[in-house]
Structures
1.
Amino acid sequence: MEPRVLAGLVQALSPTPEDVGLDVGCGTGYGMVVLSKLCNTVVGIESDLGLMEKASTLLSHLEIDNAVAVHGTLCDGCLSEAPYDVVLMEGSVPEMPEGILEQLSDGGRMAAVLNQGPGLYEATLITRVGESFGSRVLFNSAAPALPGFDIAPIFAF
């Protein structure tokens, strides 16, 4: 993800020093490092074991002790550490993943780039209030697709 897009998503999340954050598709750890300076605790999840190990090495090298990178399926999030106050999706998805939305705390925010079709990408902020979710488009910008978030084809006659 381009730094400008990442910065826009992080800014929209408005992380606070009390927040617990989730970085989905943390890659080599850049987004986790940024969130670790703004949040109390950060969990980064990465499906590519090599990238997850690079993220762990970066965190160790920078002596960041409030963030951890874990290996797992991106679309599952990291339920064991939920609920999250902020969730950063480091790539585009076709729709907001229901399983990760459910891991948001009351008042929690999730930022992602939604792929609305060929050439139409919208950085979007979702906010949870009780059992309801509100959304607003932040800006238009493309981002690489996160693996494992494909929409299942619908069977039709």
2.
Amino acid sequence: MTTATLPLSYRMEAEATVSGATMKQVCSSVMSEAGYDLSGPIYSITPSIDAIANTSGERIVAGIRMVSGRTDNIVIPAKLDLVTESSTTIEWKLRRNPTVSGFAWAASSNGRGNVEVTSSGSIISGGTVIDSGLFSSAGSLEVNTPTGLSLSLGVKPDGSSEELFLTVASSGNAKATGMLGWRELY
């Protein structure tokens, strides 16, 4: 196994038929000899600041996923930046694997080829809200190391990458945007 975010799998097999016997697997563990060095550059995705859209309902501002075929990498959320005009309160959410529409994935601009990004689209339904909050000005929220590791992107049962989206919503149709930053580890 090259990364601890991938599913752990094993197989149990009886060498001979034993009448009335039951085989049980009780637990599994993954250990890292040295762990991960969580330093290094933080890459990011943000919509164009030339035309910050009004936020009416929940809107995607940034999304990331591992590139198909590169799902043995570690992608850890590391930073959120949020801004809203006129100190209007917005609600932000980090959503894992929602159903979305109106977007396309593109290679991230860092040149590493491990992560695809998007900065548009609409949430249709589903997914899991894994973090959220309220914001009323501009600023940065650093994602601490334990939280970042717990939010790291893994692989869905079908073998595709999990997707992580930063969304914003406001009650007053205010302009709001954000940035989602991540680290890539091997």
3.
Amino acid sequence: MAPEPGSPAGRVSLFVDSFGPPDAPLLRVLLDACAENGIRVSAASPSAGHLIGFGIGAGDEADAGLVLGGDGSILRGMDHFMESGIPVLGINTGHLGFLAVVEKDGMVDAIARLGRGDYVVDHLPLMQAVLPSGRTLKALNDFSLNRQMMGGILHFEVLVDGVRVARVSGDGLVVSTPLGSTAYGLSCGGPILDPGLPAMLVVPICPHSLSLRPLVVPDSVTVSVRVGELRGDGPVLCADGRPSGSLGRDGELRVSMGAGRCRVIEFADRPGYYHRLGQKLGWGARG
């Protein structure tokens, strides 16, 4: 899906995390920049309690969502805004900031451009997981099944469109979107996928077999993960890092793409994905 042109933003909803909100001087700079550009600021509902001291009222209805933080905060902010379809701008105030489009030193300029409508809105695909109960979850980055502290080694069967591909014994499994390939999947030894690829990534976590390797599959298939023998508690299911349930023996998780789109703000003249990839991972530095 091609990016769509932006329009002048008169209202923004601000998302910050409770456990690591930005410092007060930075928030003041943001609020002043919004005021100078005629943009009204409200606090996203999960953040309202942390922004009371800044005189910001609660409100999720807006022309754009602003998220301040590192990758974890930006991901949670995207998850919050995606159901309403509000486009999201991630501003990095953390460490890596791979999901951020703007760094702190570019924040004031980015807000001015929001006010002018000088941006584009891109669309990131969402992944869906169906639990044995029929409950469905959505994720922008990944779903993971992880061994619990009181559980032993996990045993899974991995199926692609109903065909068994592998038996996995280990600490768990990650199924990710291409965007999520630079997150948990990367730390587990998976490859980096271009976010525009029509694919999903399956990565075992600490597999008890040297022959098991990450698997890239088309985004048209369904990846099923079936839990086998358990010793202790069953695996916990996380959606974009949030614990969202657990599976028992013979429980099956079905993961597929096509659960909708998350709208994100980009600036057409800013360096794109591959520039950020090399910069954030330090590939331009001499080894």
